[in-house]
UniProtKB/TrEMBL annotation:
This is NAD(P)-binding rossmann-fold protein. It comes from Medicago truncatula. Transmembrane segments: none annotated. PROSITE patterns: ADH_SHORT. The keyword Oxidoreductase applies. The gene is 25492543.
Length: 267
């Protein structure tokens, strides 16, 4: 094979020279996405609410030699979202290649138990923050002339559960947002895709999965017979950001060991 071909093929699997913002990078899936993008060569900025935990991560990443910065931001606050993008713009000279809207949270309540405050909190954290951060980041993404947004949905936004309606509704809306932006922003060289994980071993899920009955019920319905690991989700997110995925936009990929395609597992 000619050398030129080899080098152009390997460049499809590299993020060298790119810039990225990943929200919620101090724990769980976000932590792994930050590391994965940095390993592929991106310079990454991340944020979280807890400053001490964020600083601990930043110190670990310095030791590993990654180009990663971070700032405290509660993405549920409109003003803090504006500060975050101003900071990213100044750090990356007004150009951003990758935006991963990773932050999300859940409340396992029955529909009749949700309060007005629960509704605002869940819709703001899971949907409005991702919408507004994308709006704010648009000029930076457009300026890079080669950009990719990845949204974080959930299997709760694809299939249905008999608990956590507001989370599922917000995650379903994220899937539609992904499709709309793929059409609206393609002209600006911005691709938008979405990842919908099943149960993944993170601090957020640990809360729910310590209920052994729930854990067993998930595993029993999952063809691959286990729950997922954060690095399995971050690999998919990284793939969607790579030049190798340059013709993929508007898509949602479930990463759930087959849970959402399963009707029945016969013994
Ligand atoms: N784990 C699963 O089983 C699963 C399944 C389906 C979908 N998901 C989705 O995957 C995404 C990540 O979930 P995860 O399980 O990795 O969550 P996690 O373990 O709770 O980690 C969340 C990360 O986001 C940060 N964060 C949370 N709220 C924030 C806010 N308002 N502003 C800024 N940062 C915030 C947290 O740091 P601070 O607390 O310091 O802010 C932390 O770094 C979410 O969108 C979730 O809905 C997860």
């Amino acid at each position: 094979m000619a050398e030129g071909n080899t080098s152009s093929r390997s460049s499809k699997w590299s993020l060298k020279g790119t810039t990225a913002l990943v929200t919620g990078g101090s724990k769980g899936i976000g932590y792994d996405i930050v590391e994965q993008l940095a390993e592929l060569g991106a310079t990454v900025h991340t944020c979280a609410r807890n400053e001490a935990e964020l600083n601990e991560c930043l110190n670990q990443w310095v030791t590993k030699g990654y180009k990663i910065t971070g700032s405290v931001c509660d993405v549920a606050s409109r003003a803090q979202r504006e500060d975050l993008i101003a900071r990213v713009s100044s750090e990356f000279n007004g150009k951003l290649n990758i935006l991963v809207n990773n932050v999300g949270t859940n409340m396992q309540k029955q529909t009749l138990d949700f309060t007005e405050q629960d509704f605002s909190f869940l819709v703001n954290t899971n949907l409005e923050s991702a919408f507004h951060i994308s709006q704010l980041a648009h000029p930076l993404l457009k300026a890079s002339n080669n950009a990719s947004i990845v949204f974080m949905s959930s299997i709760g936004g694809v299939a249905s559960l008999n608990i956590g309606t507001i989370y599922s509704a917000a995650k379903g809306a994220i899937i539609q947002l992904t499709k709309n932006l793929a059409c609206e922003w393609a002209k600006d060289n911005i691709r938008t895709n979405c990842v919908a994980p099943g149960p993944i071993r993170t601090p957020l899920a640990a809360e729910h999965l310590k209920d052994e009955k729930l854990l067993d019920a998930f595993i029993e319905r999952t063809p691959l017979g286990r729950i997922g690991e954060p690095e399995e989700v971050s690999s998919l997110v990284a793939f969607l950001c790579l030049p190798a995925a340059s013709f993929i936009t508007g898509q949602t990929i479930c990463i759930d060991g087959g849970l959402t395609v399963n009707c029945l597992l016969l013994q």
